[in-house]
Design goal:
With 279 residues, the protein is α/β, with parallel strands linked by helices. The chain has helices at residues 8-15, 20-23, 28-44, 50-60, 69-79, 157-168, 182-185, 187-195, 212-224, 234-251, 263-278; strands at 117-127, 131-140, 146-152, 175-178, 199-202. Helix 3 crosses helix 4 (50-60), helix 3 (28-44) crosses helix 5 and helix 4 packs across helix 5 (69-79).
Amino acid sequence: MLAGDYPISVICEVVGLPRSSYYYRAVEGNETSLKTAIEKAAANWPTYGSRRLAEQVKRDAPELKPLGRKRVRRVMREMRLTLRRKKQRKQTTDSKHSFPRYPNLVKELEVTHPNQVWVCDITYIKLGNVEFVYLAIVMDVFTRALRGWALSHGLGAELTLAALHRALIEGRPGIHHSDQGVQYAATAYVEVLKDGGIHISMAEVGHAEQNGYAERVIRTIKEEEVHLTEYRDFEDALAQVGHFIDDVYQTKRIHSSLGYLTPAEFEAQWQKKQTASIL
């Protein structure tokens, strides 16, 4: 054997493997359980990468600890579990309008508590081969919780107003941040914000990254719900998208930015700490 002629460290370096892999011996029962747990988690969360999938498996099957990302990534490769992604193509933002514009108030802002900043965005959902419906969301940046959402056949201000009114039932933000689309700049929408004493903030035209939080949550909804589902009609889309937002996203989907907690868990934990600090 080569190990008799050369040091193990040299052999591993030549073949591009860590030295620990030479001594690793898989435990069949444990490997089978791990593959079963990963397969189940990947079926429920098909867009998760190895890092988040490892955290999900820790939640679902704590008896498999210790469990690292590299081990999960290896098993994912063996099982040929890959991400499915689609590109968005339909335009939903129309910034060519005569309504007032507002400066970006959140560019250098540190977000430290719930309802400090809400962000908003719109996306489209295809029904069948020809029809489109539109989804508007309102998200709290600190907790990543979706405060409000609405689905509509049209792209008018009624869509974004419905999402906003739903969100305002949950609370009131210090700052409302969006792109400069006509739906967010329209008089009727702006009046609701001003009447509530909410500061209005907008990303600059052509700088989608300035509304990055909203862009990312839209991408999550598209990748983890819309692209994986065939909707029969508007009512079916309303029910299934609503289930994903209200039940799956809020209470079951873990976020790396929240320490691998769900938005509901993270907000409850934050509130508990605030209460404890007062007592």
